[in-house]
Amino acid sequence: MNAPSRKDFPRLERDAPAWLVDVDNPYLRGLYAPVKSETTAEDLDVIGEIPADLCGAYMRNGPNQAYPPASKHHWFDGDGMVHTVAFKDGKASYRSRYVQTDHFKLNAEAGREQWPGYMGHPDPNAPPGAGSDGWLKDSSNTDLIVHNGEVLALWYQAGVPVRIDPATGETLGPQTFGGQLQRQVSAHAKTDPETGEMFFFDYNTKPPYMTYHVVSPDGRMSTVEIDVPGPRLPHDMALSKNYAILHDLPLFWDPELLKTRGLHKVTFYEDIPSRFAVIPRYGSAEDVRWFEAEPGYIYHVTNAYEDGDWLIMEGCRVTDPCPDSQPGRGQYARMMAFLLLKARFHRWKFNLKTGETKEEWLDDRNAEFPTINMDVQGMPSRYSYHVSIPTDRETMVFDGLIKYDTRTGRSQSLRFEDGWYGSESPFAPRLNGTGEEDDGYLVSFVSNEAEGRSEIHVIDAADIEAGPIARVKLPVRVPAGFHSTWVPGSEMGWV
User: Fold this and answer.
1) What angle do CA 246, 248, 252 make, to 5 degrees?
2) DSSP secondary-structure letter at 47?
3) Do 130 and 184 contact (CB within 8 A), yes or no?
4) Which strand ranges, in their side-by-side order, compose the sheet holding 221-225?
5) Residue 486 host element (H or E)
């Protein structure tokens, strides 16, 4: 099936900026078209009933390009916009706000896009860039994590975290941990809600190629250099009760092209094993133990936990790390192939006593963007919630949800109605719940492709097959995006 065009869905982009009229990029049209303005809406209409014990804020990040691209546009280039739906006392409100990074502000002052983008080339006339490439716009458009009562917006290329007020969605400023942040923060950091600590890594094209960091509850930061052979492209990490797991995977920039021509060509080296650095949470470089596994790539980890001598990591292993370009898509052929994202649920087991590695597939369906009940992060967990991704489209969409039960091997699935596509769906614990791991809700933006409208679906996490128990109608379309988080009402002073 071809990606929808403007003529196919004339209503879809009514709320998009006028400069999109002549743009032929599939990831700037249809479900992916940016909206032209920020929105605030209170007391939203609901089909069904919002549970009284759902209290907190669902926040999702994603690209929303503010100005015409300066060159070929990659979906990852879009300016970060956080969409927030707050639930309190059985009512819902909505806010969308740009992430006010330093680079976003510079573009606003200039009234145009000044950086060439992921598929462009370094521009000597552009302001100083960021990221592991060193010349891109830091858009903070990728992930959101909760840390010490604030939400931090993160960027896939590793950048400076941006503090977001969960109640208003407004940007509070960069988070440099009192000036201690001398490196950058990866797209997917981890926080421990019990200890108040934050764990993250950084990667770069210049030594040290990878570093590991811990931020204490009182803001003190420690740094450990991780010994990898050259520039790498890790995307996520794992955290158990006592260990962090960092990834050295055989998908990275071609070292010769990077060294001799400064080109960032991503290549998969199928003869190089995947390597995992296991380090005690508060360990040193000397404490790192390396484990090898089958060559592959991982975008997103589900959870990690310890079981006797075994350290277990679950996540989504990519089945085609470096796919062939999509035929007939011209300058966007390679981008569209990579963005389709083919991955399956997978488990890795590292024996801390013997050094042995075991791994196994847990399912054969194409599923990604996993979430869990954050109360069990780093602990033995039973349930995870993934989006299902069809493989018969040219662009990446989420057509349903899958709930995995790793204790029994069973699963539940929910497919959205035809023409509706969802978002990553975090787990929201039920207020004053039973404490059971799946006693709560999944919350997701769901958009109708043909009609150009969006809703919030609230789903009982214990029985996702029953479908949404509440559908919150939104006054505006929410473009397709990336990662989300749930901010409990207790973090916002509501309970």
Assistant:
1) 135
2) E
3) yes
4) 190-192, 197-203, 210-215, 221-225
5) strand 484-488
Q: Tell me how many domains the chain contains.
A: 1
pLDDT at 5 over 50: no
Interatomic CA distance for residues 328 and 334, integer angstroms: 11
> Which residue in 395, 410, 391, 416 sits closest to 467, CA to CA?
416
- Residue 67 tokens, joined: 């100005």
Give DSSP secondary structure letters for 269-289.
-TTS-EEEEEEETT--GGG-E
In a domain, 88, yes or no: yes
What SS3 state is found at 435?
coil
- Residue 329: band (very low, low, confident or very high) from pLDDT cuts 50, 70, 90: confident
Is the torsion defined by CA of 287, 293, 297, 299 positive or negative? negative
Tens of pLDDT, residues 427-468: 999 999 999 999 999 999 999 988 999 999 999 999 999 999
Q: What is the pLDDT of residue 8?
A: 47
Paired residues of 40 in beta bridges: 95
Is residue 22 pLDDT above 90, yes or no? no
The whole-angstrom separation of Cα 253 and Cα 132 is 11
Instruction: List C-alpha distances in Å: 418 to 13, 159, 213, 388, 399.
Output: 20, 38, 44, 14, 8
| Closest C-alpha among 27, 31, 103 to residue 451 | 31
Q: Within a domain: residue 164?
A: yes
Can you give the CATH number for the domain in which 128 is found? 2.130.10.10
Strands 274-280 and 289-293, how do they pair?
antiparallel
- Mean of pLDDT values over 254-265: 87
pLDDT at 13: 64
Asked if the structure places residue 7 within a domain, the reply is no
Which residues pair with residue 20 across a beta bridge? none
Task: State which residues form the domain around 405.
Answer: 18-492
DSSP states along 71-112 = SSPPGGGSPBEEEEEEEETTEEEEEEEE---HHHHHHHHHTS
Domain-located, residue 62:
yes
